[in-house]
Amino acid sequence: MGSVPEEKAKLGFGGLVGDLREVYESGRTQGLEWRQSQLRGLVRLLEEKEEEIFDVLHEDLGKHRGEAFRDEVGVLKKSVVDKLQNLKNWAAPEKAHTPLVAFPATALVVPEPLGVVLVFSCWNLPIGLALEPLSGALAAGNAVVVKPSELAPATSAFLAANIPKYLDSKAVKVVEGGPEVGEKLMEHRWDKVLFTGSSRVGRLIMAQAAKHLTPVALELGSKCPCIVDWLDSDRDSQVAVNRIIGAKWSTCSGQACIAIDYLLVEEEFAPILIEMLKSTLERFFTKPEYMARILNEKQFQRLSGFLADRRVASSVVHGGHFNPKTLSMEPTLLLNPPLDSDIMTEEIFGPLLPIITVKKIEDSIKFLRSKPKPLAIYAFTRNEKLKQRIIDETSSGSITFNDAIVQTFCSSMAWTASRSVAWGTAGSASTTASTRLTCSATRRRCSRGASSSSSCSATRRGTRPRSECSGASTASTTSRSSSRSSASGDEADGGECVNNRANRICTHTQHTVASGQLSFILIDEYVIVPSVHQNVCSVVYSFYTCLSIYRTKRYLIIMDYYLSSLCSS
Length: 569
Description:
alpha/beta, Aldehyde Dehydrogenase, Chain A, domain 1, 18% strand
């Protein structure tokens, strides 16, 4: 069997890890055909068990079918298909430059799997953040243990029951259980550990991994700010508001590390922005079930505790109504809560949105510089000087202008973060297919020829922290970026053309948003929130207006979108 019962797991994992290492060392997982068969198995799992996935996500988090397809099933299938299409090229040896003194020797950079990989997934995207790192580890030829989050029990049980049916049960194991199971897993030596979750647990993972010098990739949380500048027209302002709402409340009710945490806006523009947010929220979210619920009572109490502070409660300008029985919270706007309050010092991870005012929008840069580096910075502005100042004077994992969260949909771009947010390989949760593959594989540099042969250990592009990567890696990644984005609309494995789906979404969204009457639209049996899918549409159409910049030291991702795109009518 490919799953380990929790009762048996408590007895220890020495035999489990030993069996996986034996399977890996036999060479079973390293062949290209085996890797491709596992990826195809994941695609079949997503296709054949789609309805069950929707059911367990609704049971654990109250996610709507449209949200579940967009954030987990759809984007995950696209990522796995992308790996299948590119795996042969990624796994092939690459020629390396040799100096004249080594003539007539030749050099190759040869990819190698790391070995046995441990994946800890989280509860807010329990399917995507379990199967995405799993797919990368399998594509690189590793044996894998997946530890689903115990806070999403239905999803954990689903993965334990179905992964052995679709994947090699001797090389892929699912271990269920709580924190004590995670601690026992970390007592053993792994060749790589991938973890997505809180900073508190991340520190524990790091401490345990240090005992065996195990390399770790941590994707943690942060407070992602959004700067909102004065915009030229009412239309642009409404487009910005639609995208802000989509980036705050459409992904697990704001329970996402890349969701907007707070807004920065000029004092004079704040009242206008608040009124636009209010009216648009009322139009988009007409029923409570259109939003995911809060995970559990503990998280509910944490969020409601923010408003227990009278200073914070007095700053509420919209919403603030909670239902502890259904664990639902109304989208809530707060104007200038105290900066020393918990809501402004801790990651919110919920449907509360503080709005902080500044005298001039340029002052927002000084404000950001005084805070810890975030995973992402979002800014809505047409001011090119302000854009450049944000790029030059702030530090973050990514910057997106005139949209939000869409950077995670671009599989041609790595996802990176500052040290306080992510450690190890760039990002973890929504990392691109290529990065997922390389974070689970090493590269060996081999020299051969007339001179004496030698070999040295080297990492593949993306395996080291981004700050240590060379300029050559930047150029190579950029070239792959252009080639993959141009092929994003191709069909693969009988799947539907991504661009065709997005075009239909865009067409329906234009009509629905323009009418201002319908809150949801029906597309191929999936119910979609227009505000949400403006982001998906802009990914397709804005490839032609998107500016991608890579810097050697920071590997900063900068995405600049036109506000008046086809999808925002």
